[in-house]
């Protein structure tokens, strides 16, 4: 169908009007349009959201063409839209086109440069406003993403910001990006959390890592409070967090003795004056469940064996906060001769200094273990997006070569177990019934899907990175290897922003910041077990 627009005749310009060809608006097959010379060479044809938008909703803004001497349509402006539409198709198979007279080459080049140079994308604040309007009309987040071809994480971030006035104002002023504003919006109700995020931003640390630590800490506090309430419902006299903080000391009754120097029977603990219950978390180290009798001389099972990970569990501990009122004393607290008192004082000071050093090291280990668990969540979310890339980043071939030629144990193990972490990062369900991984057919599907050299390289890189990720854990920051530094260093080059604890793998020293104090405060429960003599 052709719509012809005639310019209205003006008696004073009849001759000029007759010389100007009328413009037409047509719907053309993009594959039939001749792609004319264009100053733009990079069409970014792999832009996923753009291709998806063209395929689902078509070309919304008309391209510009002219007719050559043979009557064929030659493209002037809209090269990216036309090429993409020809590749992925449109709902109608056609695209709108505006037909104009053929311009002179100088005009064509100038117009093409102006069109691309002065084109500006929507500001993130404008995207938020648009998403908000669609949401107010009852359009779901999934439908917003489909209608606009904006990726779902961006839509979710925009929706989060619409509900947080302070974060939205900062986005509008340009102080925050949309991703940053969404993180601040999540914690806008918590001034202390916002302050930590501000510090992370000020020191150019990863907001994603800090936000995940805040989420994990909140979940831990919620679990702690639930356990306290459960034990309180059973009638136990539980110490509150405020009482613990205000107490000069929290001493386990089991480590105290009576005035006669005898330990107190457990059934008598509740009768001690001022006795209360402190809920602590203690590490549990599972017994080695490896059955040595199964050994038949081969090393096959011993190579696959992995010891069970230690875990923490809640333990109600009877304690006193006022030793004098309890009628108990520390072990070895009396009966010493005057002659030995000086030596005992010196020994006690040395012992206390040693205990303090142990407490500091324990605080560091606990804090880093928690930080590593939080970082793992962020890192694996990033890796899930990374392995979905169409092409491998610069330097990927060298990493692949090193892993394969040296036969690194992480890759060998992943291959033996059929790449369980690779399936996790790809978001593919692993079939049941296979030992520690997917079946060979599922692995074959992943391999055969990579049918081009670029895809095969990226899939192999994904397997190498996933194999390394599968071997990481809380032990990684304690004993980082050269391969840890190699892989994590490559990920950093490719855009990953590591947390402070992950930087240990790169050989960087941990910075000393004010948040060390908050880490120590979080570990009061662990220290309570060491406060008794």
Automatic annotation (TrEMBL):
<dbReference type="InterPro" id="IPR003115">
    <property type="entry name" value="ParB_N"/>
</dbReference>
<feature type="compositionally biased region" description="Acidic residues">
    <location>
        <begin position="341"/>
        <end position="351"/>
    </location>
</feature>
<feature type="region of interest" description="Disordered">
    <location>
        <begin position="504"/>
        <end position="533"/>
    </location>
</feature>
<dbReference type="Pfam" id="PF02195">
    <property type="entry name" value="ParB_N"/>
</dbReference>
<feature type="region of interest" description="Disordered">
    <location>
        <begin position="285"/>
        <end position="311"/>
    </location>
</feature>
<protein>
    <submittedName>
        <fullName>ParB family chromosome partitioning protein</fullName>
    </submittedName>
</protein>
<feature type="coiled-coil region">
    <location>
        <begin position="197"/>
        <end position="234"/>
    </location>
</feature>
<dbReference type="InterPro" id="IPR050336">
    <property type="entry name" value="Chromosome_partition/occlusion"/>
</dbReference>
<feature type="compositionally biased region" description="Acidic residues">
    <location>
        <begin position="516"/>
        <end position="533"/>
    </location>
</feature>
<dbReference type="InterPro" id="IPR036086">
    <property type="entry name" value="ParB/Sulfiredoxin_sf"/>
</dbReference>
<feature type="region of interest" description="Disordered">
    <location>
        <begin position="328"/>
        <end position="362"/>
    </location>
</feature>
<keyword id="KW-0175">Coiled coil</keyword>
<feature type="domain" description="ParB-like N-terminal">
    <location>
        <begin position="26"/>
        <end position="117"/>
    </location>
</feature>
<feature type="compositionally biased region" description="Basic and acidic residues">
    <location>
        <begin position="352"/>
        <end position="362"/>
    </location>
</feature>
<feature type="compositionally biased region" description="Acidic residues">
    <location>
        <begin position="285"/>
        <end position="307"/>
    </location>
</feature>
<dbReference type="GO" id="GO:0007059">
    <property type="term" value="P:chromosome segregation"/>
</dbReference>
<dbReference type="GO" id="GO:0005694">
    <property type="term" value="C:chromosome"/>
</dbReference>
